[in-house]
Amino acid sequence: MSAITRGLLGEMPVTFSCRITEVFRGEQYWTLADATGASHGPFSHVVIALPAPQAAALLSGAPKLAAVAASVAMEPTWAVALGFATPLGTALEGCFVQDDALDWIARNRSKPGRDGALDTWVLHATSSWSRQHLDLSKEAVIERLHGAFAELIDCVVPAPEFTLAHRWLYARPAQAHEWTALADAGLGLYACGDWCLSGRVEGAWLSGQEAARRLLENL
Questions:
Q1: Which of 17, 28, 94, 198 gives the lowest tally of CB atoms within 10 Å of its CB?
Q2: Mean pLDDT in the chain?
Q3: Both 117 and 180 in a single domain?
């Protein structure tokens, strides 16, 4: 996911690996405090593009926006990547499964510009399965979802050459919303994310566009 934003940034100056823990406003400008205690700013406008539970904590300077973000329930998802040395003998490229364990699968090598050295598949577990196995080890999650994938697919599935698991705590909103983005133009504070709409990457994209539009309107 981060490849999209990194590609769009171009020459824009960006600070990575900096966890902001507080956003507070002086008489006219915003200041950000990070986890090390360092301050950043001043800024006339701030856009918070985080999952709702994390955004709520940083929106304390605008209580109404913070309350809206705090009301959003987010669902977790275990995501697993499996890479096979030999392409699996299936024409399937991706599908929504919505079974007990698996929710969605996709063949990564079929996407444009991807490395085709391995036949790599991305598996997303259902929210209910992910909640039930939230504290399972990555190794156990990979084993179980690999087994569910092998039962589902219409071909022989060997042991993978490459595996990766990621516990996505705030993967999607539990229900759809129609806010598009949150904004307090008077304060210059904005919030966006897939949770402002129906979830997924398209929701995040549209929400970010709306936050940018509202910010530009008030410059």
A1: 17
A2: 92
A3: no
**pLDDT (tens digit per residue) in 128-156:** 999 999 999 999 999 999 999 999 988 88
> Does 10 fall in a domain?
no
Interstrand relation of 119-125 and 162-173 (parallel, antiparallel or unpaired): unpaired
Binned at pLDDT 50, 70 and 90, residue 109 comes out as confident
Q: Give the total number of structural domains in the chain.
A: 2
Please indicate, yes or no, whether residues 117 and 147 belong to a single structural domain of this protein. yes
Cα angle 12-13-17, degrees, rounded to a multiple of 5: 125
Residue 189 DSSP label: E
The 3-state DSSP composition of the chain as helix, strand, coil percent (nearest 5) reads: 30, 30, 40
CATH code: domain of residue 188: 3.50.50.60
My answer on whether 107 and 127 are in the same domain is yes
Domain around 106: 74-173
Same domain, 179 and 123: no
* SS3 state at 75: strand
Residue 210, CA atoms < 13 Å, CB-side half-sphere: 18
The answer to whether the predicted template modeling score (pTM) of the entire model surpasses 0.70 is yes
**Range scoring the smallest mean pLDDT among 51-55, 81-85, 108-112, 162-166:** 108-112
Which three-class secondary structure state does DSSP give residue 65?
A: helix
180 token code pair: 């598009």
Indicate if 126 and 211 belong to the same structural domain: no
CA 178 vs. chain centroid, Å, equals 18
Instruction: Locate 139 and state its tokens.
Output: 């190794």
